[in-house]
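Write out the 3D structure for:
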Amino acid sequence: MNFKIFLITIITLISDQISKILITLFLKLNEQVTIIPNFFNLHFIENYGASWNILNNHTLILIICSILALLIIYKYMFNFQKNKRNNLAFGLLLGGIFGNLIDRVFLGYVRDFLSFRIFKYNYPVFNLADVAIVLGVILLIIAIFKGEDKIEVSSKR
């Protein structure tokens, strides 16, 4: 892993954990604070599953899935071209997965608190680690469409 990916991973992980600590200090469980009416709230919940309650109360399976995802990402990130976007993508992915994995291992759940209502739909509550994971995946999809998922070997004669 190169230093840039490592640095982005650490910054993402620390930002995620600090945000979760702050939310637990200032909000009670299930408390909700309106930031932008009918659009954005801080809503502290304990999430015992994944998005949309997938695998609810199956923490061990989610821990194993996270570890497998980390191993797969680590294995394949060396196949991608080294550029700013790919470094950012892998750093966000790794930091986000580690952030939620730490919660699951030490707490048995993930601390979520970002709550959005979009077109009368209450989107599932999430956290900064989830944002990092989604952004990382989007950046990797862009890299794959641009053909940056294979290192080009230049031959010198």
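The chain has four helices and four strands.
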